[in-house]
Amino acid sequence: MKIVFDLITTEFVIWVIAAIVLAIWTAYYLRKPLSFHDKHVFVTGGSGGIGKAIATEVIKEGGRVSLFARGQYGLEDAKNEIVLKTNCNPNSIQIFPGDVNDSLGTLTKIIDDSEKNHGPIFMLVNTAGYAVAGRFEDLSVDNFKAMMSVNFMGTVSVSKVVVPRMKNRGEGVVVLFGSQAGLTGIFGYTAYAATKFALRGFAEALSMEVKPYNISVTLACPPDTDTPGLIMENKTKPKETCLISDSSGVLPAQDVAKQTLEDAKMKRFLSTNGFEGKILTTVCCGMAPITSYFELAIQKGMKSKDLDKESRKYNLTKVSWKWNDNTICHSKMKV
Ligand SMILES: NC(=O)c1ccc[n+]([C@@H]2O[C@H](COP(=O)([O-])OP(=O)(O)OC[C@H]3O[C@@H](n4cnc5c(N)ncnc54)[C@H](OP(=O)(O)O)[C@@H]3O)[C@@H](O)[C@H]2O)c1
To answer: What is its EC number (predicted)?
Structure first.
């Protein structure tokens, strides 16, 4: 026994820790990202802004896209623009006019049609959404209802049609568009932030349900992005909201699209952009699904601070349970 203790020098311990850290790091970075090559990606809101940029990136990678939005002309323009930009086969882009608030029957018919030529949907990207800002007293109840209906219920409806198909096939990726205003409440966004917070809850719960079926959920939380949607939103922003958003600049839609796709490929739950975004997702991580060792360490560290011994034990159990991809729960269900 004494010989064993003699061997455990400080240097030895440091080397062991370094080896473990390196092994974890290597395992994390050597994870094979998903590929969209030859895959069908369905993009709601695909005729404008971030949705169009995402479709362009998927086409560049050799995927097939279906663009879904309300305006037929906007869809045709988007298709022509992507073909011109990427020199792709025009048949790799299909367009479907419709509203995310259409009935489930109508949405099912559209999804059926999209899968006839392009094959099963591998990734669903829900970008259709918009923001109207304003002080609480200046926003009408109808503003709240309309935004909730497109940003939240629209995403729920389209996912309701697509997710069961993914579950049957045992693969898929669901991307939902939240916002930095869905991580922290910001002046002027009582309505918009509420819709994006709702999406976060939906995304967290859905992620836990579908993970055993090899389906990942990514919640994109971009900052202000240069899109037609932002131009419209800026017209409604109170002075205070402008001051807050001016402090963090505006990103090109292509940057947001690339980052979102990279995170979706790595099956990361929270996707964001830049240093500020990283800080925000870190401090607002709550008990979000853990998709990396880094997130596990952050969540554990953050939650241990002010907890008594008992709740710390409970917390550790919950974190480890989520980390285990809820396989325990799932295997119990199977028995
Ligand atoms: N831009 C930003 O600064 C920013 C920041 C954070 C989060 N986001 C979120 O990112 C997403 C995309 O934003 P964006 O700025 O790219 O928007 P955008 O430029 O306004 O484009 C929105 C797209 O969605 C479609 N759309 C709108 N309502 C729809 C509906 N009811 N049914 C089907 N399609 C609909 C639009 O086409 P039609 O009008 O023809 O239907 C268009 O193709 C939104 O969810 C937004 O909240 C944006």
So the answer is: 1.1.1.102
Q: What are the tens digits of pLDDT across the range 219-265?
A: 999 999 999 999 999 999 999 999 998 888 899 999 999 999 999 99
pLDDT, greater one: 288 or 255: 255
Is residue 56 within 8 A of residue 257, CB to CB? The reply is: yes
- Cα separation, 302 vs 281, in Å, equals 13
In short, whether 226's Cβ falls inside 6 Å of ligand 1 is no
The CATH architecture annotation of domain 32-284 reads 3-Layer(aba) Sandwich (3.40)
Q: Which of 78-92 are b and which e, b meaning 16 or more Cβ less than 10 Å from the residue's Cβ?
A: bbeebbeebebeeeb
Q: How far apart are CA 237 and CA 257, in angstroms?
A: 24
The rounded distance, in Å, linking the Cα atoms of 157 and 150 is 10
Q: How far is the CA of 308 from the centre of ligand 1 (A)?
A: 44
Residue 139 Cβ contacting ligand 1 at under 6 Å: no
pTM for this model (two decimals) = 0.87
